[in-house]
Automatic annotation (TrEMBL), chain A:
It is found in: Cell membrane. One of its GO terms (cellular component) is plasma membrane. Belongs to the MreD family. It comes from the Bacteria. The keyword Transmembrane applies. The keyword Transmembrane applies. This is Rod shape-determining protein MreD. It comes from Bhargavaea ginsengi. Its main location: membrane. Keywords: Cell membrane, Cell shape, Membrane, Transmembrane, Transmembrane helix. The chain crosses the membrane at residues 34-51, 56-72, 78-93, 100-128, 140-162. One of its GO terms (biological process) is regulation of cell shape. InterPro entries: Cell_shape_determining_MreD. It is a multi-pass membrane protein.
From TrEMBL, chain B:
Belongs to the MreC family. PANTHER family: CELL SHAPE-DETERMINING PROTEIN MREC. Involved in formation and maintenance of cell shape. It comes from Bhargavaea ginsengi. GO terms for biological process: regulation of cell shape. This is Cell shape-determining protein MreC.
Length: 174, 305
């Protein structure tokens, strides 16, 4: 059962993201703030850290591709960024600590990195002309806040899910 | 981090990066159609997305219902006042409609740029990363949707179809930064003036109508509608209202800021307008040679005059 649970949660998060996307942007203080849901990549980072790096990478590539095909129409953007972010997270956790608070902070930092990388890419190809000092208050900070709320609420669920799966796997191997 | 730099892995990583970069460049080109694997993925993902979006719409609908229930009384009062007015307008409208029909019969004109067949659609997803203003709707080629068709809500025009698959289509909203995105528009009033909607002012959240002949007098408060001259949009879809008139950078033509009539956030149900009179393929010159013979201006699409 748990075996199927990780891909299932990933699929659910993949589909839930655009539903949350429908509610954004919201207007706070006379400015539009964009809350960009990044649930899937946060989950994949947890899977990578607490369960298996290889699995996380495979999921990252598959879901990145789906994301590209369905939403972005630029194939290869997320399929590249998702695995890279996953790898960075696993590498960072390995060199710091596996405690959940550390992982949460690293995950959020990497969401910021992802967001900034996307900003850079879209600026480069000329889709957007938003100055960087507008990007931070209207996109980066609201996104960080929204995603940190999500992660604080559900991070431990992700962790226990990934942990249980890896325990199960170890037992089976014995 | 030795595992990063073992030879095999490094080669794999490099090959992966190269493939992905190649893919990005491939898909960044102006493509006319999504290819077959892409279409299949879109349809399958779109079907799954429906299972999540429909309940979400239902819940937001419920919340909205409760919300509107709370001020029913007030609204009722206001509407009753309008009702009297409405009857009069209704009578006048049917009269005018009849007369219009009669006049058309006399002239022998059957096609009208204004006529369109509405296709109702539900929004499946909004591009969650919100860099490009795109939505995906649950109607596609099999329902008669084609590229470049106009998409609107009850309030007014919101965008146009940019990509279709058999069961979904992708709509790019008017509020886009894409410089190739143009809509041929018409300022209504005593004298009509044509222009192109090009660009979006993110700060003011207003559309920019450019290339208006400076001989025309336009002023704030005038309504802007789609002109139907681009080839695919029907005429008369409300776009918005002029809020400011300026001259363009070179001082040759006028430009105006337009407050869009439709709200681009929280889209749920949209209408795709399928024009009943002959639609002209408004594609760019490179792709369809014959379209160039028919179109006087390719206003709806990138390389328009």
């Amino acid at each position: 059962m748990i075996r199927l649970l990780i891909p299932l949660v990933a699929v659910v998060l993949f589909y839930v993201e655009p539903v949350f996307g429908l509610f954004s942007p919201i207007e706070i203080g006379g400015e539009l703030r964009f809350l960009i849901p990044r649930f899937l990549i946060m989950f994949l980072i947890f899977v990578g850290v607490y369960y298996s790096r290889q699995r996380a990478l495979v999921y990252a590539i598959i879901f990145g591709l789906l994301y590209d095909l369905f939403h972005i129409d630029i194939i290869g953007l997320y399929a590249f960024l998702y695995p890279v972010v996953c790898l960075l997270a696993i590498w960072a956790v390995k060199h710091i600590h596996q405690h959940i608070i550390v992982v949460t902070v690293i995950t959020l930092l990497l969401v910021a990195v992802l967001e900034t990388a996307l900003y850079g890419f879209f600026t480069l190809i000329g889709f957007i002309g938003m100055p960087f000092n507008e990007f931070i208050p209207t996109r980066l900070v609201p996104t960080m806040i929204a995603n940190s709320v999500f992660l604080v609420l559900l991070g431990w669920v992700f962790k226990s899910l990934a942990n249980r799966r890896s325990i199960q796997k170890r037992e089976r191997m014995l | 981090m030795p595992q990063f730099f073992s030879n095999k892995r490094l080669i794999l990583l490099l090959v992966g990066v190269i493939v992905l970069v190649a893919l990005i460049f491939f898909s960044l080109r102006d493509r006319d159609q999504a290819n077959v694997p892409e279409q299949i993925v879109k349809d399958v993902v779109g079907f799954g997305q429906q299972l999540f979006s429909k309940p979400a719409h239902y819940i937001t609908g419920l919340v909205d219902d409760v919300d509107s229930l709370l001020n029913t009384y007030e609204e009722n009062q206001r509407l009753r006042a309008r009702l009297v007015e409405y009857a009069a307008v209704q009578a006048e409208l049917s009269d005018v409609r009849n007369e219009n029909q009669r006049l058309k019969d006399i002239v022998g004109k059957e096609d009208d740029l204004r006529d369109y067949e509405p296709i109702q659609a539900t929004v499946l997803a909004r591009n969650p990363d919100q860099w490009e203003e795109k939505i995906v709707i649950d109607r596609g080629e099999s329902h008669g949707i084609q590229k470049n068709m106009a998409v609107m809500t009850a309030h007014g025009l919101i965008g146009k179809v940019i990509l279709t698959t058999p069961f979904t289509s992708t709509v790019q909203l008017l509020a886009t930064q894409d410089p190739d995105y143009r809509v041929s528009a018409l300022v209504t009033g005593e004298t009509e003036a044509f222009g192109l909607i090009e660009g979006y002012d993110t700060e003011r959240r207003e559309l920019i109508l450019r290339r208006i002949d400076s001989a025309f007098e336009i002023k704030e408060g005038q309504k802007v509608i789609s002109s139907g001259l681009g080839g695919i949009f029907p005429k008369g879809l409300l776009i918005g209202e002029i809020t400011e008139v300026t001259t363009d950078d070179f001082g040759l033509t006028k430009q105006a800021h337009i407050k869009p009539a439709a709200d681009f956030s929280l889209l749920e149900h949209v209408i795709v307008a399928k024009r009943t009179s002959t639609a002209v393929d408004g594609s760019d010159a490179g792709n369809t040679g014959e379209a160039m013979d028919n179109t006087a201006d390719g206003g709806e699409e990138g390389n328009g005059s």
